[in-house]
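Section 5: illustrative case.
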C-alpha cells in the first residue's frame, strides 16, 4: 500500500502508471489486517496489539496525506488526528520477590506533530541525548547521588585515573587538553566530583560534544576520556546505591536504567558506531553486547530490557530463552523510540487497524484509479531464460465476482468504513459453496483455478509486497543458490505470534486493573504485552448491558515441533487448540497479577466475568472471546536476529530488473518488523521503480 501511495503521489502519476493490486482473500493489510465480526456485535478482531510509535515519521506522513485526500463527508474519523490519539503512559512489569510490580513510565508530550519535518540525530547526537537524559534523571531524582564522602570501597575517578596513567605523553597531553576544554582541573576537581554521577555524565556530554571529527590522537583521547567518565559515573552510583537496591524501587530502577544507558553509550564509542553507524555492531546479540560494555546482569534481565524484546517479539523460534535481537538494530530502535517521538511516545488508533489504515488507503487509491483484484492468490513468480527479469506470475483466482464486476469489500459501522471478518459471499459466484472457506490460510484446501500473468502483456513491473514468510514458497525460483536473494531468504528469520482479546462485564475498577493500563509489557510469557482497549467499545455495536472492559494481549509463540506441508488441512485447528490450552492455563496462573479482582477466593480466574451472550459455563466462555495464532507464512513476524540485517535487500536490489521489494523485511535504516519500516520500504520500492527521488525520513543514502 505504501508503494502504491508513493507512486500515485508522484507528478503525472495518472499518465505514467497503471497499477493493479492483487490481494489474496477479501481484505487488505496482511498481518496488519483487522475485521469486524457481525456475529459478535461488529467487534474488532486484530492479528495482535497494534500501537503506532511517535517516531513513525514516514508512516504518519502517509496517513496525513491519505486522510487529507478523503472526502469530507462527516464520518467520525475524518482527519488523521481523529484516527490517532496521543498516549504517553506505558508500563513494564517487574517480577520482584515472587510478585508482579507495575512500573509506570510517563514520558512528557511535546508540541510536535508526527509526519512533519524529518531530520534525525547522528550517532553522536544520540550519544549526547543518552548522556543528557541520564544526567537529567539523576539530577531530578529523589536519590542521593551527591554524598560528601564516597564509600571506602570505591575510589572515585578510578577508571579515568587508570586510563591516564597508561598513556604515553602525546595522548596524555591530549587528554589534559580535553579536560581543560570542559573546565576541569585534573589534579583536584576530577577526584572531588567523580563521586557525583550527574556531574560526571554532564562532563561526559561536554567531552562528546567537543570530540574532533577527524581520526587521530585527539579524537582517541576524547573517546578514552569520555568512556572513562561514563564508567566512573556508573561505578560511583552503584557503589553508593547498591545497598539500597532491594529495599527501594526508585534505586533499583535508576541503577538498571543507568547501567543500560551507560553500556549503550560506551558501546557506541568503543565499537565504531560513531564512525560506521549502528550496523557496526549488528553481528552481536543485544543483551550480550550490553554485558560486554559493563551493563549489570540485573539491568540486562530487567523489565526495561525484557520490554524491548517483547516489543519486537525478539525470540528465535518463539522460545523465551532464545533471545535474538541484533545490537545495532535494537540500539537504534530504542533511541528512535524514546528520543525522536513527536507529540507522544505512542499514538493509539481509534478503531481497528483495517478501519484506520487500510480503509483510507483503499478509498484514496481507488480514487487515484488503482485497481484491486481481490480473491487472487500468488502461486509463483517465474524468471525469464537469462534470469534477469520476472517473466510469468502464476495466480489462483480463489473466487469469481458476480456479473464480472469488482468486489466491494467495505461495510460502514457506526460511520466508519470497515473490513468484515468474513467475505461477503453474496458478491461471489456460487457464494454459498464458500461458506466456511478460509481464503487466507495456506493450509486450507485451495479453491478456484490458476492463470498466468505474462510480462509485456499483463505487467511490466512487479512490486512484491508479500510477507517474508511466504516469499520462499512463491519466489523460490528466483533465489538461485549463492545469490543475495537466496541469502536473504536463508538468513532473515520469522516467528509465530499469538494474540488474545477479552471482553469483560465489569469495568477496570471491578477487576482491579491499573488505570491507565495501555501498552503494558514484560509480563508473563507468552502473552507478555497487553493493553486496556476499552476506549474502542463505542466503535462496536454492543447492547446497553454489553461489556465494560476490553483488553488485547499479544506475544511470540513457540513453533510447532514440525510445521507440516500445506495439504495437512488439520494443522491450523491443532495449533489453535494448542494455543487455547496455553491460554486456559495462562489466565489461571497470571490474571491475578494484573487484575486482582478477576479471581475467585481460591485464586482461580473467574470465568463468569467474560462477557458471553450465550452465558456458557466456566471456561467455555473463552469460546466467545477472540484467540488468534498467527501461523501462516504471510502472518509470521520478521525478526532482527544477530547478523541478519546485512542480508536484507533494498527495494531495488532484487537482482531482477522489473522486480521491486516492499515490506518490513526489506532493508531500511530500521530493519525491524513495524509499520514505519514497511512504509519506508514501500517508498524505496516506488523510488527504484519510478526513477524519481522520493524523500524518506531517515532513509538510506
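Designed sequence:
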Amino acid at each position: 500500500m505504501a508503494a502504491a501511495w508513493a507512486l500515485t503521489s508522484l507528478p503525472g502519476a495518472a499518465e505514467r502508471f497503471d497499477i493493479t493490486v492483487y490481494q489474496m482473500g477479501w481484505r487488505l493489510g496482511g498481518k496488519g489486517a483487522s475485521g469486524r465480526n457481525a456475529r459478535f456485535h461488529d467487534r474488532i478482531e486484530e492479528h495482535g496489539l497494534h500501537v503506532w510509535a511517535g517516531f513513525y515519521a514516514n508512516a504518519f506522513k502517509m496517513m496525513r496525506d491519505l486522510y487529507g485526500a478523503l472526502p469530507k463527508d462527516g464520518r467520525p474519523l475524518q482527519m488523521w488526528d481523529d484516527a490517532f490519539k496521543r498516549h504517553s503512559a506505558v508500563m513494564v512489569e517487574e517480577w520482584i520477590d515472587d510478585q508482579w510490580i507495575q512500573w509506570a513510565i510517563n514520558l512528557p508530550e511535546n508540541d510536535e506533530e508526527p509526519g512533519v519535518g524529518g531530520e534525525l540525530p547522528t550517532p553522536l547526537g544520540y550519544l549526547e541525548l543518552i548522556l543528557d537524559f541520564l544526567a537529567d534523571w539523576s539530577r531530578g531524582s529523589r536519590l542521593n547521588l551527591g554524598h560528601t564522602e564516597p564509600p571506602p570501597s570505591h575510589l572515585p575517578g578510578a577508571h579515568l585515573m587508570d586510563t591516564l596513567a597508561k598513556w604515553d605523553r602525546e595522548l596524555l597531553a591530549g587528554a589534559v587538553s580535553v579536560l581543560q576544554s570542559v573546565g576541569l582541573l585534573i589534579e583536584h576537581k576530577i577526584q572531588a566530583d567523580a563521586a557525583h554521577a550527574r556531574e560526571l555524565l554532564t562532563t561526559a556530554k561536554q567531552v562528546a560534544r567537543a570530540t574532533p571529527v577527524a581520526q587521530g590522537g585527539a579524537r582517541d583521547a576524547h573517546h578514552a576520556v569520555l568512556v572513562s567518565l561514563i564508567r566512573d559515573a556508573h561505578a560511583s552510583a552503584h557503589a553508593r546505591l547498591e545497598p539500597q537496591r532491594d529495599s527501594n524501587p526508585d534505586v533499583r530502577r535508576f541503577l538498571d536504567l543507568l547501567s543500560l544507558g551507560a553500556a549503550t553509550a560506551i558501546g557506541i564509542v568503543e565499537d565504531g558506531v560513531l564512525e560506521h553507524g549502528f550496523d557496526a555492531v549488528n553481528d552481536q546479540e543485544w543483551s550480550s553486547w550490553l554485558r560486554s560494555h559493563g551493563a549489570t546482569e540485573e539491568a540486562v534481565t530487567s523489565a526495561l530490557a525484557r520490554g524491548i524484546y517483547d516489543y519486537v517479539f525478539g525470540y528465535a523460534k518463539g522460545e523465551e530463552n532464545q533471545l535474538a535481537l541484533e545490537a545495532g538494530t535494537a540500539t537504534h530502535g530504542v533511541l528512535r523510540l524514546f528520543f525522536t517521538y513527536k507529540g507522544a511516545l505512542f499514538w493509539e488508533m481509534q478503531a481497528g487497524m483495517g478501519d484506520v489504515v487500510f480503509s483510507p488507503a483503499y478509498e484514496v487509491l481507488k480514487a487515484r484509479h488503482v485497481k484491486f483484484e481481490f480473491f487472487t492468490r500468488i502461486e509463483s513468480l517465474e524468471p525469464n531464460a537469462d534470469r534477469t527479469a520476472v517473466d510469468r506470475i502464476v495466480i489462483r483466482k480463489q473466487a469469481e465476482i458476480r456479473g464480472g464486476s469488482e468486489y466491494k469489500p467495505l461495510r460502514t459501522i457506526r460511520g466508519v468504513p470497515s473490513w468484515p471478518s468474513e467475505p461477503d459471499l453474496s458478491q461471489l459466484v456460487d457464494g454459498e459453496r464458500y461458506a466456511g472457506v478460509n481464503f487466507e490460510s495456506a493450509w486450507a484446501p485451495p479453491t478456484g483455478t490458476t492463470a498466468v500473468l505474462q510480462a509485456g502483456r499483463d505487467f511490466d513491473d512487479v512490486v512484491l509486497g508479500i510477507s517474508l514468510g511466504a516469499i520462499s514458497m512463491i519466489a523460490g525460483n528466483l533465489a538461485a543458490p549463492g545469490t543475495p536473494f537466496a541469502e536473504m531468504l536463508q538468513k532473515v528469520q520469522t516467528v509465530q505470534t499469538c494474540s488474545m482479546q477479552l471482553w469483560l462485564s465489569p469495568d477496570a475498577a471491578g477487576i482491579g486493573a491499573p488505570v491507565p493500563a495501555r501498552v503494558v509489557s514484560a509480563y508473563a510469557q507468552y502473552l507478555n504485552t497487553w493493553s486496556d482497549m476499552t476506549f474502542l467499545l463505542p466503535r462496536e455495536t454492543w447492547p446497553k448491558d454489553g461489556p465494560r472492559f476490553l483488553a488485547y494481549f499479544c506475544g511470540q509463540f513457540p513453533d510447532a515441533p514440525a510445521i507440516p506441508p500445506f495439504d495437512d488441512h488439520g494443522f491450523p485447528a491443532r495449533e489453535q487448540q494448542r494455543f487455547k490450552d496455553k491460554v486456559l492455563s495462562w489466565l489461571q496462573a497470571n490474571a491475578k497479577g494484573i487484575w486482582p479482582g478477576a479471581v475467585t477466593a481460591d485464586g482461580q480466574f473467574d470465568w463468569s466475568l467474560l462477557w458471553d451472550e450465550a452465558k456458557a459455563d466456566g471456561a467455555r466462555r473463552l469460546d466467545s472471546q477472540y484467540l488468534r495464532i498467527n501461523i501462516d507464512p504471510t502472518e509470521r513476524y520478521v525478526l532482527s536476529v544477530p547478523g541478519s540485517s546485512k542480508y536484507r535487500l533494498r527495494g531495488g536490489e532484487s537482482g531482477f530488473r522489473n522486480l521491486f521489494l516492499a515490506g518490513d523485511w526489506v532493508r531500511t535504516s530500521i530493519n525491524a518488523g513495524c509499520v514505519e519500516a514497511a512504509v519506508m520500504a514501500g517508498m524505496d520500492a516506488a523510488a527504484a521503480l519510478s526513477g524519481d527521488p522520493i524523500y524518506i525520513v531517515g532513509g538510506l543514502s
